[in-house]
């Protein structure tokens, strides 16, 4: 199987994830600006999750373009990533509806952490299939963003239990790290 089919399937799942997240936002009851106020936490959680899904989609695209062939291990690793990403609409809605309460916010961080681990496993599966001298292995290098993100997620999970704003700040900081596109893979493919 080529990486194009895997990418098309993944793109479809990611599009559905975004659709589900936006459909979870309910129309306010009332026509005043005050009717929107209770929806602010829901909207903010949606924005953060939309950014995360966009980051994964962008980096997943580059990752699969560095992939020369797909084997069973890569397929399963990709499904593992999609499983955790598919839980984002649930924890996003739960967190927003409960105004960033401790448990929903910690569970949100848990899904972010599991997604990061799953993405790392997908990278490893591709590198293992292509060999240690592959363009992807070279491009990944030290992968400082990939190493610091799980630390921020764990910190956010713990902090969410005591100070939910602090947890959200750490989740937001991790997203900001990845908003700057990771061009390592793209550069290595064009050299």
Describe it for me?
The chain has nine helices and no strands. With 191 residues, the protein is mainly alpha-helical. This is TMEM175 family protein. It is found in: Membrane. Keywords: Ion channel, Ion transport, Membrane, Potassium, Potassium channel, Potassium transport, Transmembrane, Transmembrane helix, Transport.
Mind telling me the C-alpha Rg?
Answer: 18 Å
Terminal Cα span? 25 Å
User: Which structural class matches the secondary elements?
Assistant: mainly alpha
Unreliable spans are none
Count of all domains: 1
The helix/strand order is HHHHHHHHH
Estimated helix fraction: over 70%
How is the secondary structure organized here?
Elements: H1 3-23, H2 40-65, H3 72-86, H4 88-97, H5 102-130, H6 135-140, H7 144-160, H8 164-179, H9 184-189
Helix pairs in contact: 1-2, 1-3, 1-4, 2-4, 2-8, 3-5, 4-5, 5-7, 5-8, 7-8
Features:
191 residues, mainly alpha, 76% helix, globular
């Amino acid at each position: 199987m080529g990486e194009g089919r895997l990418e098309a399937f993944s793109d479809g799942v990611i599009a559905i994830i975004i659709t589900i997240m936006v459909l979870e936002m309910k129309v306010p009851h009332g026509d005043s600006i005050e009717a929107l106020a209770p929806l602010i936490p829901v909207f903010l959680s949606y924005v953060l999750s939309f950014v995360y899904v966009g980051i994964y989609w962008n980096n997943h695209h580059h990752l699969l373009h560095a992939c020369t062939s797909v084997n069973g291990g890569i397929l399963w690793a990709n499904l593992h990533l999609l499983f955790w990403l598919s839980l984002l609409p649930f924890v996003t809605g739960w967190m927003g509806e409960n105004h960033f309460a401790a448990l929903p916010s910690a569970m949100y961080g848990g899904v972010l952490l599991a997604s990061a681990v799953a993405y790392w496993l997908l990278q490893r599966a591709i590198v293992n299939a292509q060999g240690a001298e592959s363009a992807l292995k070279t491009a990944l290098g030290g992968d400082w963003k990939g190493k610091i993100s799980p630390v921020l997620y764990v910190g956010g999970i713990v902090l969410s239990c005591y100070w939910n704003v602090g947890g959200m700040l750490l989740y937001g900081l991790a997203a900001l790290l990845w908003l700057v596109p990771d061009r390592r893979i793209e550069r290595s493919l064009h050299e």
